[in-house]
Amino acid sequence: MRNKILAANWKMNLTQQQVTSWLGEFNDLNWKSPHTELRIYPSSIYLKDIQAAGLHGGAQNVYFEANGAYTGELSIQQLQSIGVQSVLIGHSERRQLFFEDDALLAQKVNACAAANFQFVLCCGEAIETRTAGAHLDFVLAQLSENLRLLTETDLHMLVVAYEPIWAIGSGLSADLDQITEMHQAIRNHLVGLYGVGGEQVPILYGGSVNAANAKTIFSCPNVDGALVGGASLDPLIFNELWQALQA
Ligand code: PGA
Questions:
Q1: Closest Cα partner for 129 from 92, 89, 91, 88?
Q2: Residue 15: which residues within 8 A CB-CB, separation 6 or more?
Q3: What percent of the chain has pLDDT over 90?
Q4: Catalytic residue at 91?
Q5: What is the pLDDT of residues 163-188, one digit of tens each?
Q6: Which of 42, 61, 115, 145 has an alpha carbon within 20 to 30 A of 85's alpha carbon?
Q7: Whose CA is closest to atom 1 on ligand 1?
Q8: Average pLDDT for the chain
């Protein structure tokens, strides 16, 4: 059985004071469950606060080198040295705004695997690609290229997040048919690449998940949870998503 995962991507939001109050409020709520993982991806300066609150803290980005003259970057080894448990790789904002390409992302995936570090690989198409009917080919090609250096032995470190770019932060999530079609295609692709091991990789949906649509999205086959931006910034709403995932 695949674990379900609810992950908060806080992006470049929240001050120290807001993080402290978020954690205080959230930890007062009922959120523990044996079969569901909760993960928080804050700005890295807050990772220690997340961990001190007893939550899974993950970084939003990482560089593939272990150390050296790379001003502004963080390495997997640095993250591991403070107990960080995972990282997002290839979020569309990294791809589009910071020009991270598939070759770089494959190196990051490879570095995570070599360091035994869990990662969430994000993929997703732009609206023009979907309108042209090329969304499946595009996303599966992204996966093939980004996972090119990942072997079956290291597959347990992988979580995939499908995040259509047009749904991120737009208030307009993909509909159930679109989600079902893409998640099934990703599942088949992973099984094609890795055999039965591909059945065990959790696939999250991301893009305008909120308290109103979470339950129906979670009921789609091959949706093992969500990566949530805007709706994760309010601890009460995020807890509603958590409850929806348990149902
Ligand atoms: P959103 O962001 O939930 O605000 O659409 C999702 C994401 O970018 O991970």
A1: 92
A2: none
A3: 95
A4: yes
A5: 999 999 999 999 999 999 999 999 99
A6: 145
A7: 229
A8: 97
* Encoded amino acid at 171, one letter: G
Cβ–Cβ under 8 Å, residues 165 and 120? no
The pLDDT, as a whole number, for residue 172 is 94
Instruction: Answer whether 111's CB lies under 8 Å from 74's CB.
Output: no
Nearest residue (CA) to ligand 1, atom 6: 229
**Backbone CA torsion sign across 164, 165, 169, 175:** negative
Catalytically annotated residue among 37, 91, 93, 135:
91
CA distances from 234 to 9, 18, 32, 47, 117 (A): 12, 10, 18, 18, 28
Look-up of token digits 């990703």: 186
Catalytic: which of 93, 100, 163, 240? 163
Q: How confident is the model at residue 34 (pLDDT cuts 50, 70, 90)?
A: confident
Distance CA 156, CA 136 (A): 24
| Span from the CA of 72 to the centroid of ligand 1 (angstroms) | 24
Question: Which 3 state secondary structure label does DSSP give 5?
Answer: strand
Residue 222: predicted pLDDT? 97
Terminal CA-CA length for the chain: 16
Residue among 168, 233, 234 to mutate when testing ligand 1 (max atoms within 8 A of CB): 168
Which residues, at least 6 apart from 150, have a Cβ–Cβ distance to it below 8 Å? 109, 110, 113, 158
Q: What local confidence, expressed as pLDDT, does residue 1 receive?
A: 81
- Global confidence as pTM: 0.97
